[in-house]
Amino acid sequence: MSSKGPVIVITGTPGTGKSTHAQILAQESPVPLRHINVGDLVKEKNLYEEYDSEWQSHIVDEDRLLDELEPTIEAGSVILDWHTCEIFPERWPDLVVVLRCDHTRLWDRLEKRNYPLKKIQENNDAEIMEVVIEEARASYPNEIVVELRSESTEDLESNILRIVEWITVWQKNQTEGSD
């Protein structure tokens, strides 16, 4: 798939810093990238079947979500920011970044968001059990899945630099490949 810029998925358990990473990456990237917070898109475009009040979350209509995203993905130059990644077709991402965070730090972050205790526990368990990284590894080629720590400002800065370097190399490879 030829595109102006890469398709990058930034994923991880809620509270690991996906949106912060995606927002800064969109600003720092050597190529223009559009940041799409998939959770916000689901709400804005009503791409859900119902709202689960117990879990305080929407039950996503995956088919409608994928149909909505397809033209944007085909155009490239996008960052998808979501707590899961395995629903995205294997052909979509050029890079899948899985953010990880120590579970005690994650617990504190989710408490600050006023998540209900049950939701904090479920997300904390998911982080401990490595659910998101396992989904990513099972869904995409190993060479495009990167696991990064997201516990401090230093981690954030280092991660952004690393992804920007990856974009630069990716862009160079795209240019050389089209000669």
Automatic annotation (TrEMBL):
EC number: 2.7.4.3
GO CC entries: cytoplasm; nucleus
Catalytic activity of the protein: ATP + H2O = ADP + phosphate + H(+); AMP + ATP = 2 ADP
Gene3D superfamilies to which the protein is assigned, alphabetical: P-loop containing nucleotide triphosphate hydrolases
Coiled coil feature spans: none
One GO biological process term: ribosomal small subunit biogenesis
Sites where the protein binds ATP: G15, G17, K18, S19, T20, R113
Domain of life where this protein originates: Eukaryota
Region (NMPbind) location: 37-60
Single GO term (MF): ATP binding
Pfam families xrefs: AAA_18
Major place of residence: cytoplasm
PANTHER family linked to this entry: ADENYLATE KINASE ISOENZYME 6 (PTHR12595:SF0), POS9-ACTIVATING FACTOR FAP7-RELATED (PTHR12595)
Record's function text: Broad-specificity nucleoside monophosphate (NMP) kinase that catalyzes the reversible transfer of the terminal phosphate group between nucleoside triphosphates and monophosphates. Has also ATPase activity. Involved in the late cytoplasmic maturation steps of the 40S ribosomal particles, specifically 18S rRNA maturation. While NMP activity is not required for ribosome maturation, ATPase activity is. Associates transiently with small ribosomal subunit protein uS11. ATP hydrolysis breaks the interaction with uS11.
Quaternary assembly: Interacts with small ribosomal subunit protein uS11. Not a structural component of 43S pre-ribosomes, but transiently interacts with them by binding to uS11.
Name used for this protein in its record: Adenylate kinase isoenzyme 6 homolog
